[in-house]
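Support reply, case 0932

Customer input (verbatim):
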Amino acid sequence: MQPTVALFIFFSAMSASAATLRRQANDADFGKCTPTMDFQLGRAGRKADQGTFLPTDPLVAKGQQDALNPNIITNRICDQLTNVCEANQAAKDKCKQAKAQLSTAGIKDASAATTFNSALGF
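Our regenerated output:
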């Protein structure tokens, strides 16, 4: 196999894998973004034992500061699905459902990120 063909196949496979990550069950297509958040202790400007949330996708996180309240970040993620991600309606609906589930649970620790991400299929 020629090197050019091998590279083409390799990069094509990588692109397909990335697209698969953003497209979940029920035809939810998150477009350009991966709508997940993470929880970390001691981010810049915070105490070492203070945990905050932040979107994991750079496009979603652009301009967003970390937050103590996960609902601030879930609002950002769901808004950005419309504003910059070019997500379809099924993805937006799924995000609203995940956001409501997390809000109802009332948790504000690392399990909040896991709950939200899992509800979206990640």
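We compared this against your earlier run and they match. Two observations from our side: DSSP finds five helices and four strands in the chain. Strands lie at 23-24, 28-29, 37-41, 51-55. Please reopen the case if you see a mismatch on your end.
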